[in-house]
Queue: 2 jobs
Job 1
Amino acid sequence: MEIIEANESNFDNLLTRGEMLVDFYATWCGPCKMLAPELEEIKDKIQIVKVNVDENMELCKRYGVMSMPTLIYFNGGSRDVKVGYMPKDEILKWIGK
């Protein structure tokens, strides 16, 4: 699957697609840069959506994003949040893949 870059105008529509992992990141964030290749390696197992925090402050406020990277796993009506770098194996275990 392709990694999708989301913004405030398309985010709610993306949520209707079902299960996905959202990465709230910043281009200047070191741990975010470390996480990017990990997400690239698991994109065939789950839809990855990236949100640039500098360009989408309203989404950050809505989801309480205070640190980066913040990963939010959306599955049905539920969501789970993790903050900080995680290796791909840990991410897959967390989301049950």
Job 2
Amino acid sequence: MIEPMKNLNQIIFFNVLCRLLTGAGLYPAFLSIMLVGLVSLPVQALPVQGLYQEEIAVANQSEQERRRAYREAFAQVITKVTGERRWLEHPQIVSALNGADRYVAQVSFRSGGGSSQQAGQLDVRFDQALIDTLLEGANIPVWDVNRASVLVWITVQDIDGRRTMLGSSAEHQLLDQVRTFSDQRAVPVLIPLLDLEDRLLVNVDRAWALDAEALRKAADRYAADSVLAGRILVTPAGDLVGFWQLIFRNDVQVFDHINSDVTSYMEAPLDRAAVTLASYFGLVASEFEREDQVVLRVDGINDLQSHSRLVQYLESLSVVREIKLNALRTDSLELDLQLLGTRQILTEFISLGRDLQPVDFVPGQPVGEVLHYRWTRQ
């Protein structure tokens, strides 16, 4: 999960610790651990890793079991890359699924130990170029690695009538499902600290009422791109009856979800959030054929370091093909950007981060020849 950092030293410590845990096999590369008790500060853009890679449990090392693992891994990778399971029913994907081994680039086996040395985990890495070409040919949108985050705010009422908000330090089955979903679907998920500041913004009553205004303020604190808030009633029979609200931009979706299977309850609400974000930010390859050019004016660039960081950030955006310096001033600069896509798409991608804040326009809306931003990274 993702937690806000207090300062640069904590960020460095956090990254080192994540690498150590990842190396130990405790967490996937893109999934951060939770550090509780740190003072909140907006996080940066949330890129994900491992989109074209999946680890599958195998019972043995037979050819039949290996091919089954390839198919399962392929289906999960397609779901991660596109953000939606429905594409698994596309005829071209169904056909490719039957020959998933043709898309495999690298495979490694890790023994599960115990009495059977044949059982273990098969780490399957697919060829990104082949997968992208397949999706392009099927005209299926791809969700970029820089992904919108979801702040998940859950309030549970037990059979005794007691209501509890679930924070990052809580041990709860519902939060375990949230973490698993974030891992499997490559969706950056934030869980609130529920410290004093959080509780002043969203107390139990506001959370139970799904107070949109309070939840938006909480989202601002965590720099979250969307909020998935739910109130869940646990019945005497053990069923979960939930009422949910998904807040993204100016859109608010309200829906209910009832399930007697406690172990998979969160799947449906989280899937709805992922599909909403993927359908908004997913790009069909044809969009990249519509090349565009725009001037980017950026305030707050007053030294070589900030200039270098700005260029590195822009180079990380898949829609930016070429960058040229146009004008350099005391505390600002102008860059000519050659785009693989439209300038509206560029503003949407930039809006996923917190480094550039628009000065006089709304991201995603029609814009002119010049995009005016302020560099806010410290």
